């Protein structure tokens, strides 16, 4: 397993970054919050895990080992693959996820795109005894936006909608969430736009 990667960031996308390691550019898929903390040209160090499929090798990256362990833990539940696991840690912070599992909080778990009541119940049954609920739930994630230059609204909107669809949200709610953010801040960078829309969709579920 590729346990971690470190090197300069060559590219930043809506759902991945490219990190140069030993002269090779590695595409690393990550959550909007993790991507938002990186800057092109600066060195990044990400905890990683490699998902091997017959037709692909996909590298997932995380801000810390705690997120990685939760990503792997969620996938031990039947029917939960890496895509849904990444959506889980994108919508719910580690402490929020652990508390929801420990308390059987189905309302919080169904905020995850692609997770209905039955899936949420399965998550609770299979993982409740494997997590420890935090003493307190911290305030929402901070993660300031970087000095990325604003991009034209037209192309950015479609890119962010596509990224939300990739996380499991449906077309109309994704478009409505993105449009609402753009109405408030037309010059939002793609990363900020995605993170804010994702937060809005999570609250609405």
Give an overview of the whole structure.
The structure is a single chain. The protein is an alpha+beta fold. The protein folds into 3 domains: about 5-60, OB fold (Dihydrolipoamide Acetyltransferase, E2P); about 65-130, 5' to 3' exonuclease, C-terminal subdomain (DNA polymerase, domain 1, Orthogonal Bundle); about 155-205, Helicase, Ruva Protein, domain 3 (Orthogonal Bundle), CATH 1.10.8. The chain contains 9 helices and 5 strands, in the order E-E-E-H-E-E-H-H-H-H-H-H-H-H. It has a 5-stranded mixed beta barrel with strand order 1-2-3-5-4. A hairpin with a 2-residue loop joins strand 2 (about 15-20) and strand 3 (about 25-30). The chain is globular and about 45 Å long. The termini are far apart. Mean pLDDT is about 85; it is low at about 135-155.
Blueprint of the fold:
Elements: E1 4-12, E2 16-21, E3 24-29, H1 32-36, E4 43-53, E5 56-62, H2 65-74, H3 82-91, H4 94-103, H5 106-109, H6 117-127, H7 153-166, H8 171-184, H9 190-204
Parallel strand pairs: 3-5
Antiparallel strand pairs: 1-2, 1-4, 2-3, 4-5
Helix pairs in contact: 2-3, 4-6, 7-8, 7-9, 8-9
